[in-house]
Amino acid sequence: MDDKKRPLALHYQKPIPYTHHYIDQKDIVEVTSVLKSDWITQGPKIREFEQKLANYVGTKYAVVFSSGTAALHGACAACKIGPGDEVIVPTLSFVASANCVLYMGATPILVDIDSDWLTIDIKAVEKKVGRNTRAIIGVDFAGLPAKWNLLRRIADKNKLILIDDASHALGSKLKNKRIGSIADLTVFSFHPAKIITTGEGGAVTTSNKIFYERLLRFRHHGILKNEKLNKKYGAWYYEVQDVGYNFRITDFQAALGISQLTKIDKFIKTRRRIWQKYNHAFSRIDELILPREQNGCFCAWHIYPIRLNDRAKKSRRQVFDFLRKAGIGVQVHYIPIHLFNLYKHKFGYKRGDFPVTEKYYDSALTLPLFPALKLAQQDYVIRKVKEVLK
Q1: What CATH number is associated with residue 40?
Q2: Residue 221, in any domain of the structure
Q3: Per DSSP, which regions of the chain are E strands?
Q4: Among residues 224, 227, 222, 228, which one has the least CA distance to residue 239?
Q5: Cα separation, 73 vs 65, whole angstroms
Q6: Inside any domain, residue 11
Q7: Which residue segment(s) compose the domain that 322 sits in?
Q8: CATH code of the domain containing 353
Q9: 381 plus 340 within the same structural domain
Q10: Partners of 305 in the beta sheet?
């Protein structure tokens, strides 16, 4: 995105954040129009956003939620995951990927990642499938799709449900199929850090009508209301068959999502351009492992994670502190789930259990990447990374 076309509101001074939302005048107009309308929640913009999102990813249905975490919770509920069930989850992810299993009273079974793809390790999944396994949650880390073709074979063989935590991957593709249309249920996040934003928000996409209807009820207190019930008991009548929550999103958030979705191709094009620029600039630095697309993948590049290899003369902490002091808001994605006290104490996980993830975590650093990142800021990031590793 050209600097001249950037919103006036986004003129950054140091520090440079690792990510930032992009809101322009069109977004503001669309949200304002809803705020002036008769419906600011539970209105027509919700369905419009859902339909446009489903059309974009290539599924029959989409259900939007108040957050990506609520959407993950909803996906597990739609599968009827419950006590006694096990769900396989990669330990390299934001903790919500595993917590959503705990919400249902089930057990998350953590596994390691593939060292090249940084997504769930297929052999580790095969080893962990057991009699109580109900589903696999794959994570499209940084926007790189997991190996969904291989995961599908495992799922079909063992009659498991595939859930894609695609919070990083709206717009990514695997073998020309959009993420959102491959797994049985796919979860997206619309947090301001993500590819598009609704402030807070999330969604589940699916082509399974049963899952779709369960998701709708789960989002709205478990309420079932239809023409048959109204005809029998009265127009006011509704039934509650399952436990549900108030995980609704507002119409003005949906309006922002619709507007943002019209710009997603430009957002992704800019993200990919920055990724390519960084990779070119850092290609001769022997101490770095750079993020690359794997065969058959098209990545939206939600984040730009680099790794320090064994030749690096400085530690990750030294590089992190130097860049932060230089006004660059670097980050680390993520602390492995098995290293949190909740998972160590509840399930007995410990350091050493997942060596590939731990090696990645100990060396990883996320550099700034977002559509409003100015050319001068990109150059500054590159210069400072080269300086600290010189």
Answers
A1: 3.40.640.10
A2: yes
A3: 61-65, 86-90, 107-111, 133-139, 161-165, 173-174, 177-178, 185-189, 202-206, 223-224, 239-240, 288-289, 297-298, 304-308, 364-367
A4: 224
A5: 10
A6: no
A7: 264-389
A8: 3.90.1150.10
A9: yes
A10: 366
Length reported for the chain: 390
Q: Are residues 30 and 121 in the same domain?
A: yes
Question: Are residues 287 and 377 located together in one domain of the fold?
Answer: yes
Is 217 a member of any domain?
A: yes
Measured CA to CA in angstroms, residue 316 lies from 1, 69, 361 at distances of 31, 29, 10
Which of 205, 238, 261 marks a domain boundary?
261
Find residue 173's DSSP bridge partners.
178, 298
Please count the other Cβ atoms lying within 10 Å of the Cβ belonging to residue 367: 26
Query: In total, how many domains does the chain have?
Result: 2
- Give the burial class of 295: count Cβ atoms within 10 A of its Cβ; 0-12 exposed, 13-18 middle, 19 or more buried: exposed
Question: Contact 76/101 with Cβ under 8 angstroms?
Answer: yes
pLDDT tens, position by position, for the chain (390 residues)?
Answer: 555 555 544 444 578 999 999 999 999 999 999 999 999 999 999 999 999 999 999 999 999 999 999 999 999 999 999 999 999 999 999 999 999 999 999 999 999 999 999 999 999 999 999 999 999 999 999 999 999 999 999 999 999 999 999 999 999 999 999 999 999 999 999 999 999 999 999 999 999 999 999 999 999 999 998 889 889 999 999 999 889 999 999 999 999 999 999 999 999 999 999 999 999 999 999 999 999 999 999 999 999 999 999 999 999 999 999 999 999 999 999 999 999 999 999 999 999 999 999 999 999 999 999 999 999 999 999 999 999 998
- One domain, residues 298 and 349: yes
What is the rounded CA–CA span in Å between residue 118 and residue 4? 36
In three-state secondary structure terms, 37 is coil
192/250 same-domain check? yes
Which of 200, 202, 183, 248 lies closest to 222, judged by CA?
248
Which of these three, 236, 261, 286, is where a domain ends?
261
Could you give the 3-state DSSP secondary structure of residue 17?
coil
